[in-house]
Fold this protein.
Amino acid sequence: MHDLLYPSLKEAATWPLHEVLISSTWKEPMELTSILVARRGPEDFYAMGSFLVDQACLGVKSAFGRILDELEYRKLRAQMRRSQELIPGDINLAAKIVRESVAYARSFGIKPDPDITEALLMIQDADPNLCKETIPLGGIQGKPTFIAGPYDNIEKIVRTLEKHLGPDGFDMVIPLMPFIFEDEGDDEFIGLEDMDWDILDEEAFFEEEEP
């Protein structure tokens, strides 16, 4: 199928929900959480929103929204399931994980991947306030814990955290082993150095829950 025949993401946001998959370890904030939200449209098109969430510190590290044909969707879905165990989840839980993690990171100066705007279209009809789960945030000691990844601009992140929290206001973990890039051509995971730090707030979605 030619790219010009693909529907728009905005149109696809109204398609029926196909599935929601969430990392089985989402209650462990020191683990990265992957979220996949898919909607199925006409002619076997799929609309997919994907979020890579760091609940310990950085919020949404990577996000994207895409229109895929069935083969493309199954291939990308399988790729995500190979990297983490994903289990069926509720769209309101997915939205709450995203909302709470982004709000947490914003509180000390870290903003989400700018491509989150497209991914949010896939959960725009969710209501995080209907989810009664408590979203765990921060590290073991309750403080933001920056676990350095291979695509992170460590110096910039540490500078931001120190500015907002002070040198003792957060914990930091740097792996002892050097990072190994299995596929240098993989552009799915975007480091903070690539982010647009002036991204506009998604005020409607990230509206705080009333007490």
